[in-house]
Amino acid sequence: MFKWLTGSKKKKDEEFFQELVQAAAVGSRRTKVKEALATKSVKIENEDDVLHCVHSVAAIVRLVSKQAGLNAPFDDSDVRFVVGLFAFVASDHVSRMYSVEFEFVSSIACLELLGTERANEIRDLGDSYNQMSAEGKVVEAIGTTLAKWINGPTDENLFALARLFRLCLEHAEKSK
Fold this sequence. Notes:
Elements: H1 3-38, H2 49-67, H3 77-98, H4 102-114, H5 119-135, H6 138-151, H7 155-174
């Protein structure tokens, strides 16, 4: 007689449980990113997931470029290209971990890294990222190496990312 009551409650309980599991998974992945950054004394303020993701991506790219021997501001066009490429790859990976929108994260992370005066370059960087994703293994190699560093934030794994950054920069400079 009251089956409609218990059935509805059971469904709501299952939905609530699924939301809890998803929130715990996102929290666990966010913790992985925070822990990886903390190994290099980088702390991101507690913000909502989107802003935390943006700032984490920017911090990761800064760490990699610094390890490769380059610091902001990134005035050279080849350096900006590689910084942008790494920002897009990191945005793709980290935004999935946080379950937030890639397009927003990648755009804002690039603005944070390159400056608002370079906003007109972000569309071209995105187009290059999309083309490289479809055509080659470079984006995949960066993404795999980035995931390896996030899951095992050792100096060796960060150095591997910096080597990839340097290789991409050397290739960009030769392509002129």
